[in-house]
Amino acid sequence: MLTLWGRTNSINVQKVLWCIEELRLPYRRIEAGREFGVVDTPEYRRMNPNGLVPTIEDDGFVLWESNAIVRYLAAKHGEGSLWPADPRIRADADRWMDWQTTTFGPAMGPAFHGLIRTAPEKRDAQAIAQSVAKAEPMAALLDAHLAERPFIAGEAFTVGDIAAGA
User: How many other C-beta atoms can be found within 10 angstroms of the C-beta atom of residue 98?
Assistant: First the structure.
C-alpha cells in the first residue's frame, strides 16, 4: 500500500493528497513535519535526506519532492487523465508545475509564511509587501492564461492544475 509521510497543513503534502484523492488510490498517511517531528529521525533521513515532507513509499520505491511524487503517481495510475497521453499537453502541464516551483512559489512564499505561519507581532511587513509585489504579476500571468482555457494545460484537469492550485 502507498504510504505518505506529511502533515495536512503543508501545501506540498496537499498536492500529493489531492493527486491521491483524484486517482482514488488507497493509502496510509503518517503525520510528519513541524509539530509532529519524525523528519529528523535517522529512519526518515534515510528515505529523505532533506528532512522535509512529503515522502512516499510505494511497494519499496521511495520518492520525495511533491511535484515529482505527483508526476510519478499520475504516470503510474492516471495516464490519459491527470497524466495526458499527448506529450505536448503533458509538457505544458509539466511546465506549469515547474513554474509553480521555480517562479510563483518563491515569489509568494515570504508573504504566505509571513501572513500564515508567523505570529502577527513577529511579521516582517516589508518582506511581506515585497513578496506580494513579486507574486501579483505572477498571479496575473496565471489568471490571463486560465482566461483562455478551462484548465492549465487545456481542456482537461492535469497534474499542472494540482501544482498551481495548491
Answer: 12
Per residue, the 3-state secondary structure of 110-139, as one string, reads: HHHHHHHHCCHHHCCHHHHHHHHHHHHHHH
135 burial via Cβ count (<10 Å: 0-12, 13-18, 19+) = buried
pLDDT at 135: 97
Say how many CA atoms lie within 13 Å of 26 toward its Cβ: 2
Crossing angle of helices 66-77/87-99, nearest 10°?
160
pLDDT tens digit sequence for 61-116: 999 999 999 999 999 999 999 999 999 999 999 999 999 999 999 999 999 999 99
Give the chain's end-to-end CA distance (angstroms, integer).
25
Between CA 124 and CA 116 the distance in angstroms is 12
